[in-house]
From TrEMBL:
<dbReference type="InterPro" id="IPR017714">
    <property type="entry name" value="MethylthioRu-1-P_deHdtase_MtnB"/>
</dbReference>
<feature type="domain" description="Class II aldolase/adducin N-terminal">
    <location>
        <begin position="8"/>
        <end position="196"/>
    </location>
</feature>
<dbReference type="GO" id="GO:0008270">
    <property type="term" value="F:zinc ion binding"/>
</dbReference>
<comment type="similarity">
    <text>Belongs to the aldolase class II family. MtnB subfamily.</text>
</comment>
<dbReference type="GO" id="GO:0005996">
    <property type="term" value="P:monosaccharide metabolic process"/>
</dbReference>
<protein>
    <recommendedName>
        <fullName>Methylthioribulose-1-phosphate dehydratase</fullName>
        <ecNumber>4.2.1.109</ecNumber>
    </recommendedName>
</protein>
<keyword id="KW-0456">Lyase</keyword>
<dbReference type="Pfam" id="PF00596">
    <property type="entry name" value="Aldolase_II"/>
</dbReference>
<dbReference type="InterPro" id="IPR001303">
    <property type="entry name" value="Aldolase_II/adducin_N"/>
</dbReference>
<keyword id="KW-0028">Amino-acid biosynthesis</keyword>
<feature type="binding site">
    <location>
        <position position="94"/>
    </location>
    <ligand>
        <name>Zn(2+)</name>
    </ligand>
</feature>
<keyword id="KW-0862">Zinc</keyword>
<dbReference type="GO" id="GO:0046570">
    <property type="term" value="F:methylthioribulose 1-phosphate dehydratase activity"/>
</dbReference>
<dbReference type="GO" id="GO:0019509">
    <property type="term" value="P:L-methionine salvage from methylthioadenosine"/>
</dbReference>
<comment type="pathway">
    <text>Amino-acid biosynthesis; L-methionine biosynthesis via salvage pathway; L-methionine from S-methyl-5-thio-alpha-D-ribose 1-phosphate: step 2/6.</text>
</comment>
<feature type="binding site">
    <location>
        <position position="96"/>
    </location>
    <ligand>
        <name>Zn(2+)</name>
    </ligand>
</feature>
<comment type="function">
    <text>Catalyzes the dehydration of methylthioribulose-1-phosphate (MTRu-1-P) into 2,3-diketo-5-methylthiopentyl-1-phosphate (DK-MTP-1-P).</text>
</comment>
Length: 204
């Protein structure tokens, strides 16, 4: 796919995710793999429902901008570490939904368990509702290099990981193509809402 097409995928993802209320205002960041050793990422601080072709830039997989004058997302390292982790990852989405934010704050400990939901099968590699999908929750940190260093051991120990939460902040998920990453955002959002409803009824 050309850079223009990959940029359009990011623009379209932003319109969709903003429209669903999962990427309000200037929150969130998105990327696609540009080549074996480069990513195309959103420029920092842009409204994600109003992205245009100039609102993306290329970086290397150490997170360095390859386009002077454009400021890469503050969370670039969280994207590039995923492209370095697995060669088959082609798109990464980070969103800031209300449900991801609230559920990550309500869940004590370092992970959330999703189990007995048919929709778990929307995640890559999951074929039954009977297993558990473990979603790690990392405490938020303004130092993204330090946060990435906490994420890396989990990825290395959990090669089937399909996404993670940052507490009080949002979701990261990914896939071979943008359509896969978008499907996983939708699945997570459905499951987060179910979890919050189940918990509120159980605690009533
Ligand atoms: C306004 S939300 C705070 C920053 C953030 O968490 C985010 O996802 C957007 O940061 P970026 O630098 O990619 O615009
Ligand atoms: Zn964020």
């Amino acid at each position: 796919m050309s850079r223009e097409q990959l940029a359009q995928e990011i623009i379209d993802a932003g319109r969709f995710l903003y429209g669903r209320g999962w990427s309000p205002a200037t929150s969130s960041n998105y990327s696609t793999r540009l080549s074996a050793d480069q990513a195309l990422l959103t420029v920092s601080g842009k409204h994600k429902g109003q992205l245009g072709p100039d609102d993306v830039l290329a970086t290397d997989l150490d997170g360095n901008s390859l386009e002077p004058g454009k400021k890469p997302s503050a969370e670039t390292l969280l994207h590039t570490q995923l492209y370095r982790w697995k060669a088959e990852i082609g798109a990464v989405l980070h969103t800031h939904s209300v449900n991801a934010t609230v559920l990550s704050r309500l869940t004590p400990g370092d992970h959330l368990v999703l189990e007995d939901y048919e929709l778990q099968k929307a995640f890559s590699g999951v074929t039954t509702h009977q297993g558990q999908v473990l979603v790690p929750i990392f405490d938020n940190d303004q130092d993204i290099a330090r946060l990435a260093a906490k994420v890396q051991p989990w990825l290395d120990d959990n090669p089937d990981c399909v996404g993670y939460l940052i507490r009080g902040h949002g979701l990261y998920t990914w896939g071979p193509r943008m359509s896969d990453a978008l499907r996983q955002v939708e699945a997570f959002e459905f499951l987060f809402e179910c979890e919050l409803k189940v918990r509120s009824i159980a605690n009533a």
